[in-house]
Every structure is written in C-alpha cells, then in structure tokens.
Amino acid sequence: MITDPGLRWILTLVFAMAAAFCLYRCVRRAQFTGSVSEVLHTLMCAGMVSMAWPATMSFARLPQIILFAAAAVWFAVTARGHGWFAWTHHTLMMAGMAWMVFAMPLAMSGMTMTMTGGEHAAMGHAGMDHARMATNGPAHVVIVAVVLTVVFVVAGLVWLSRAIDAARGERRPGQRTTGLAMEGVMSLGMGVMTLAMI
C-alpha cells in the first residue's frame, strides 16, 4: 500500500515508538481496563507496521478484523469516562483498523501502473523505478478512506495542540504530555495510511 520505501521506514519507526510507549504505560497502569487498552493500542501499532510493508500486509486478515472490531467495542464501552473526544477517537481508530484490513484487497485491486511517455519508451529498470502507482479502487472504499483521512488528520492535530498546551510550563515533557503527543502521532500516521488507499 505504501509504495515509497522512505515513508515505509518513517511509519515503521513512528508506530514502533508508539508501541513501545504503550507497553511502558501498560506496565505502569494499575487498573485492568487501562492495561487492556494499552495492549490493544500496541497491537494496533503492530498492525499499522505490517500494513506498511507488502510482504506482511495480508498477514492473518480475518483474526485482525475480529481483533480490531472487538477493540472498537471495548473502547466504545470503557472509554466513556475519558471525555467524548478521546472516547470517539479511540473507538474510531480501532474501527478504522478493522475497516482498513478488510478493505485493503479492494483498494489494491484497483491499483494500476501509470507511466509518462518518456518512461514508457525507456521501459527498462530505470523506467520501472520512475513508474508511479495510481489507485482506482471502488468508490465506496475511496469515500470511506477520504472521510477517515480527514477525521484522523484533524484529530491528530487536536491531540498535538493539547500536547503543546500541556507542555507549557514544564521543564521537560511528562508522561501525560508524551501520551497526548503519541495520540497525535498515531492519529496522523493512521491518516497517512488511509490517504494511501484513496
């Protein structure tokens, strides 16, 4: 799905760091519901990494769909006490993961290779290196992907603005500020992944 190797590595590093932070918070959590939520976030990050790489993109699709659909229900039930924004965002993130895993084959089925005239004339390895991928997936997949992209990008910016506000007056970022920043980074990363399905 992600055709640029550099972007793949950036997303991999971003979600790997987010997963490590979620595991750290899982260890520090005293409440059972909080620990489960952090584990689910960690699994979500692992799923995002796998989707960035073609070799593992279709790994265990059905178990992932079931897992993230169940995770969406979990957050819909347990995250109400964290405010409407966090509750809605966490639920949509997990539902979005389940949808992406489900819709990935449909989005990929419409992927075609397009080349300019000069590239077509020089069809060798150099021409293939400069080929561009264009997606023409089903309309309903594109529409959902557009909506999710907008939602995740806007939510990511809101989380980052909250992190900046929380960081004011702090000599160094605390766990709460870092958590807000990680929420923003994960949301923006999800936005990049859904954008790639358009």
From TrEMBL:
<keyword id="KW-1133">Transmembrane helix</keyword>
<feature type="transmembrane region" description="Helical">
    <location>
        <begin position="138"/>
        <end position="160"/>
    </location>
</feature>
<feature type="transmembrane region" description="Helical">
    <location>
        <begin position="99"/>
        <end position="118"/>
    </location>
</feature>
<protein>
    <submittedName>
        <fullName>DUF5134 domain-containing protein</fullName>
    </submittedName>
</protein>
<feature type="transmembrane region" description="Helical">
    <location>
        <begin position="6"/>
        <end position="27"/>
    </location>
</feature>
<feature type="transmembrane region" description="Helical">
    <location>
        <begin position="39"/>
        <end position="59"/>
    </location>
</feature>
<dbReference type="Pfam" id="PF17197">
    <property type="entry name" value="DUF5134"/>
</dbReference>
<feature type="transmembrane region" description="Helical">
    <location>
        <begin position="180"/>
        <end position="197"/>
    </location>
</feature>
<feature type="transmembrane region" description="Helical">
    <location>
        <begin position="65"/>
        <end position="87"/>
    </location>
</feature>
<dbReference type="InterPro" id="IPR033458">
    <property type="entry name" value="DUF5134"/>
</dbReference>
<keyword id="KW-0472">Membrane</keyword>
<keyword id="KW-0812">Transmembrane</keyword>
